[in-house]
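Minutes, project huddle
Topic: does the predicted pose make sense with calcium ion bound?
PN asked that the exact inputs be recorded in the minutes so nobody has to dig through chat later. Recorded below.
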Amino acid sequence: MIYCVEDESSIRDLMLYTLSVAGFEAAGFENGAQFWAAMKEPYPQLILLDIMLPDEDGISILKKLRAVSATAQIPVIMATARGAEYDRVIGLDLGADDYLSKPFGMMEMVSRIKAVMRRAAPRESQPLLQYGGISIDKAKHLVTVDERPVTLTLKEYELLKLFMENVGHVFTREQLLSSVWGMDFIGETRTVDVHIGTLRTKLGARGGMIGTVRGVGYRMEERHEQ
Ligand code: CA
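Predicted holo structure (tokens), as shared on screen:
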């Protein structure tokens, strides 16, 4: 949910329309009082905040948002009048995440919103893959088997990561070739067999987790332990 605080109804309507087309849920408010009335849980994911408002201005609203821990982390994009450098500087100083200079295009608005949301997204997008004693730290490109670091070649690593991300899914040799070696790789499916072989060896006792499905390909076996 995105909140738009903007007193000019034509701009506000256009923003809300654009956001809905872009797939966002959005609600509009024409002044601070309306906005504060709506500011309770669940809080919006992002606030588009105009500075020039009839009652309380955007700077004051931003200050209050940042002063309270429940709302301090909500991303805010300020809308500033053209040439209002001062407002922009104050806004960024007070913790606005970005600003849009009026008049701004709707496509620009959407791309700024997406960028700010990406930055604000919690960084826990599965940097650590763990399964059956094998773990992959994607950020560090580090593989461990039962806490023991294992050195893999890039292709072995890519194969293992694919299996770990799709436990139980059977990949044909052709699928593995195209996703790990690239669509235009001209090689033999035997290449896959060779790499699976070395990967299994390096995984030691856990190597058996990569199963052969006869006549089809390979998969990371699902473990059924009680
Ligand atoms: Ca305004």
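Observations noted during the meeting:
- Residues 67 and 86 are 21 Å apart (CA to CA).
- The longest helix spans residues 106-120.
No decisions taken; revisit at the next huddle.
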